[in-house]
Amino acid sequence: MRTLLCYGDSNTHGTLPAPYLGFTARYSREERWTERLARLLPDWEVIAEGQPGRTTVHDDPVEGAHRNGLTVLPAILESHRPVDVVLLMLGTNDLKERFSVNAGDIALSLERLVRVIRASGCGPEGSAPGVLLVAPPPIEEAGCLAGMFAGGAAKSRALAREIEAAAQRLDVPFLDAGQVVRVSPVDGIHYEAGANAPLAEAFAEAIRRNFPA
Q1: Is the pLDDT confidence value at 213 over 90?
Q2: What mean pLDDT is predicted for residues 94-113?
Q3: Residue 35 to residues 16, 50, 132, Cα–Cα distance (Å)
Q4: Which of 73, 92, 105, 191 lies 20 to 30 angstroms, CA to CA, from 51?
Q5: Phi, then psi, of 87 in degrees rounded to 5
Q6: Residue 210 — very low, low, confident or very high, per pLDDT cuts 50/70/90?
Q7: What is the pTM of this model?
Q8: Which strands make up the sheet holding 174-176, listed edge to edge?
Q9: Is the dihedral of CA 162, 164, 166, 169 positive or negative?
């Protein structure tokens, strides 16, 4: 059985759309796209490693330095080794106004994470894990998170193009989640329940196509 590590943020964690700040409810295990993906890939161990608020490479001055995806990535890779493939979907939280980065910067940050994954030696027999690089869907400035993500919606519309270019530079497969799901109008960041099934199906198809047995 091969291992697929899903490395992401609250949308990998399964966080529901937030009607107010501080809301932390989560979809049931059976509903989450990660669990649905596991059922679609019975020959894989699917590990859901999603942390709400996780960034690509930034210490969050408001929500905590522990949300820096670069800092914790080596430990997570080692804790789950051997890892055959990493499904990497980050970048949404980098759109918060406090980080002042553009879509190109976010794509470059994801490139850095891919290089860390490849250099980790955490694949089978010390090899480099494979990577499926995913562009998260564009966000909207809505609800209780609108102020936090002020200016982020416009930048997010360039994310898929920039991340796809990064995937081409790295020679790794790419998937645009924005072609599969949309964010909820409740908070403009998280996914409605109906997004879980199509997202799992799209990921399953991409894994089968790019990482055949």
Answers
A1: no
A2: 98
A3: 15, 12, 18
A4: 105
A5: -90, 110
A6: very high
A7: 0.97
A8: 44-50, 2-8, 85-89, 130-135, 174-176
A9: negative
